[in-house]
């Protein structure tokens, strides 16, 4: 075979490959799996961005089979847009509304941390103190490391060496389940020396839940309602699921599209919060205000934050 035949034959195959690639990209663009171009740019008017969102969000929901989502947009410490898309329940056709509370899972930890810091602010607890110092009705189980090493600050920052915890066992509302103390006795077993490294832990935040109850003398859910939700204007938030919630929280769906019945945990601080997107925006704004007070540099950077709650069933991890 001549060299020229090999050369031109290779060129033909290369050309065919390029044409096939271009055809694939064209089809992908038409189906929306690859965006044709960036439709909004920084500095564009807010209305342009909102128009883009109203086009893009439903397309993404369809692409990823998301039944419903609720979005709040914060700009310059103000909620400038609030919108819900899709359904709260597919079978009944119940429409999702912006005032529908959703389970926010592990975002609960940030809110719970706010509750702990309220006690710190009042001088009722210290970040460097061992959590055992504040326990009255429950004692830490025996452990390899000194109990004094499990400080409040380390629990807050996931550096207490505690395990992730049980994130798979769930219960139906009204079903008999272990107490918070019983779960903590099972799970408060450090995997590594406290204070050495970061290790994400639901167990640590559930221990902080008990800390709040012991120090405040209140039920955790009630303390969070009076000391955090009311003061921050989070009117649609609760750590207690209630069958009388109006509107009712949406039906959850697993990755195969099967409905997931309402479920609860014995613990609440690590992932038990129900809240609306508007409430989570209120919480975000409160944090943004704290950032402005602490550092004016970051106030120039954090000017816009989007709070999105997707109607799925993520684990508290």
Number of helices: 9
Morphology: globular
Output the helix-strand order: HHEEEEHHHHHEEEHHE
Helix/strand/pairing category: alpha+beta
Distance between the termini: 63 Å
Task: Please name the CATH topology of the domain at 105-240 and 257-268.
Answer: Beta-lactamase
Give the uncertain stretches in residue-range form.
1-10, 291-317
At CATH level 2, the architecture of the domain at 105-240 and 257-268 is 3-Layer(aba) Sandwich
CATH superfamily of the domain at 105-240 and 257-268: DD-peptidase/beta-lactamase superfamily
CATH class of the domain at 105-240 and 257-268: Alpha Beta
Write down how many β-strands occur, each being a DSSP E stretch of 2 or more residues. Answer: 8
Helix content: 40-55%
With strands numbered from the N-terminus, the spatial order across the biggest sheet is: 3-2-1-8
Strand content: 5-15%
CA-atom Rg in angstroms: 25 Å
Q: How would you sum up the major sheet?
A: 4 strands, antiparallel
Mean pLDDT, to the nearest integer, reads: 84
Brief characterization of the structure:
This protein has helices at 3-31, 46-64, 108-121, 152-156, 180-187, 202-216, 220-232, 277-294, 296-301; strands at 68-75, 79-89, 94-95, 102-103, 252-253, 259-260, 274-275, 304-310.
